[in-house]
């Protein structure tokens, strides 16, 4: 952690290879993998922004739902997703702790979204309602797998809000739980004041 590179994995590579060149090559591979992760994450989030905007579920939905005829892609959503995530990454320059909090907020939100999706499927199974057509089925083990998945996600969801150290000081506290709560309350407020009057959800 006290490495002059300020990146523990680079110091580990240098310790193992005893070579700056070897550590540089291995570090470059990590950066390339991060780049590919960034591209796929940005593409995924831009498609989600586009989908919600298309269904009038976001502010400025007319702009974000536009599809560029030249690129055949939702360019406005893609550009917003890219610029917003780049701006968030700059927080790490000023405060790695704040950056880690945002990262754990993303983890918690991801777990919550998976739980909502799996929970909806589990409820349909419990009530005996038909599921939408799919390319594969879990068969008779479907409900059991859904329940195990929900329990596992609940555990990960709670862990994502843990502080990095026991009995943390305020500057080391993981404030992601507070941020998650504010985000949920803000989303509910937007839905009840605006969203439910214009949101046109996807049709199965």
UniProtKB/TrEMBL annotation:
InterPro entries: AA/rel_permease1. It comes from the Eukaryota. Pfam families: AA_permease_2. Keywords: Membrane, Transmembrane, Transmembrane helix, Transport. Gene3D superfamilies: Amino acid/polyamine transporter I. The keyword Transmembrane applies. Its main location: membrane. It is a multi-pass membrane protein. It is found in: Membrane. GO terms for molecular function: transmembrane transporter activity. The chain crosses the membrane at residues 20-37, 97-123, 143-162, 174-192. One of its GO terms (cellular component) is membrane. This is Amino acid/polyamine transporter I. It comes from Clohesyomyces aquaticus. The lineage of its organism: Eukaryota, Fungi, Dikarya, Ascomycota, Pezizomycotina.
